[in-house]
Amino acid sequence: MTSEEDSTAELKAMLGKGVEVVSNLDTILGDFFSEYRQLIVSLGLGFGSIIAVKLTLALLSALNEIPLVEPILELVGLGYTAWFVTRFMLKSEKRQEFYEKFTDTKDSVLGTKEVLGKKNGFGEK
């Protein structure tokens, strides 16, 4: 009978520890997430980016299987490239304008220069 009582006491102790862990689970998880927040966010963004790239590639692959879509997309790309070159790259003053817009946008995104109250070159404040 003592071995049976010992095993019952062990079981009660283990169940007590389990109940304690479950009752403190919100505190344990909260501490874990607050301690490793940056790592968790970085991993989540990394996995999300990988999934987004894979889905985009799958969508483009499926679109390329449709007749005439691939050449039309290539023509759109060539047309946009030609427009971009003629709009921004042929004349020196247009290249300078594009460079200023690009650096202003880069600085506002990366936060290397304060651009509050200054237009970023794309008509936005």
Task: Describe this structure in a few short sentences.
With 125 residues, the protein is mostly helical. The protein has helices at residues 2-23, 25-35, 37-64, 69-89, 92-110.
Overview of the structural elements:
By secondary structure, the protein is mainly alpha-helical. It has a domain at 68-125. It is built from five helices and no strands. 0% of the residues are buried. The mean pLDDT is 86.
Report the portion of residues in β strands: under 5%
The SS-based structural class is mainly alpha
- pLDDT under 50 segments (min length 5)? none
One letter per element, helices H and strands E, the order comes to HHHHH
| Oligomeric nature of the chains | single chain
How far the N terminus sits from the C terminus, by CA atoms, comes to 81 Å
Jot down its keywords.
single chain, 125 residues, mainly alpha, elongated
Write the layout of secondary structure elements.
Layout: H1 2-23, H2 25-35, H3 37-64, H4 69-89, H5 92-110
